[in-house]
Amino acid sequence: MSLLAAGGGDGFHAPGLEEFYPPSFLFVGTPFEINRMMLLRIAATIVLILIFWLGLRKARIVPTRFQSLIEMALDFVRRDIAYGMLGKKDGDRFFPLLAALFFGILFLNITKVIPFLNISSNANIGMPLVMALVVYVVMIGAGIKAQGGGAYIKSQLFPAGVPKPMYLLVTPIEFVSTFIARPVSLTLRLMFNMLVGHLLLVLCFAATQFFFVDMGGLMGGFGILTLLGGLFFMLFEAMVSILQAYVFALLTAAYIQLSVSQDH
After folding, report:
1. H helices within the chain, ranges in order?
2. Total-model pTM
3. Other CB atoms within 10 Å distance of the CB of residue 54
4. How many other CB atoms are there within 10 angstroms of residue 231's CB atom?
5. What is the tens place of the pLDDT at every residue in 52-93?
6. With CB atoms 3.0 to 4.6 Å apart as the test, which of 52, 139, 223, 227 could cross-link to 212 if both were Cys?
């Protein structure tokens, strides 16, 4: 749905949640049905793979500009997220996951500021939930592999240095924090940031069309303000798209580090 479509031509219509659940138009009635949100996910994934393939398929010792940009982006994830949170050894182990999450989320997010796409498929809970569950499985698996099953559960639910009577209070809190709050927070943080940002953009541009087309005259002046506001929020949401990809990958690294750490 275009950002301008919500304005219509018969009065102002506030943006709603219906466009986050668009009707399917391919393979309807089958497990493989495709709607606009799914199409955006497929398109963003293809573009991401294509960019990395074109940039790295003939990697040179003296890189081209395009190759340099891709290597700089990968190095950012490796050094600032993977090594920064996990150290070199574990950072190298989990770098592929962290890079896939960072760039995957970024490309799925950034579609909301691209004209004629104008929405992030991460504004629907499906994709953020899948990625959070992947992180959840990796987090627990890494902890069990590093410490053993019993030692991992003990380190997460019974922190060292806490007086034994306090475990009655601390252990339930640690259980909720580790095994429930982490995946839920990863999912909801990403989804709501994308959802609210989209609604804000739709509101600005729908109001712009309303003032320019439906009101006109002196009231059209307010359309200039809402248009400028919409353009500002587009830049802001582009920054948010990058930031949310970074935060998701960073928290993933932090959760893995807490799982593999022996002195949690």
Report:
1. 36-56, 65-76, 84-110, 126-147, 149-157, 167-175, 182-209, 220-260
2. 0.89
3. 12
4. 14
5. 999 998 888 888 899 999 999 999 999 999 999 999 999 999
6. 223
